[in-house]
Write the structure tokens for this entry.
Amino acid sequence: MLPNSTETKIVVTANARAWRTMLELRAGEGAEQEIRRLAVRVLRTLQGEAPGFFSDFEVYVAEDRVESARISYHKV
């Protein structure tokens, strides 16, 4: 158990296809707000690092006033 506010570092790796699938599922309006916020932040990072793979995602503000993302092309 770590006390509150303890910094931890997490390293995650995946290929582009796995990232796209995760973002499609977790950045949409159907996902819980906490995971959606994380997914949108991951998406912005990936769009900066690999725009060719992730530029077809659109970030928008959903009806619940939390940023979400949608994809133009499914299963590319």
User: Anything to note?
Assistant: The longest strand covers residues 57-61.
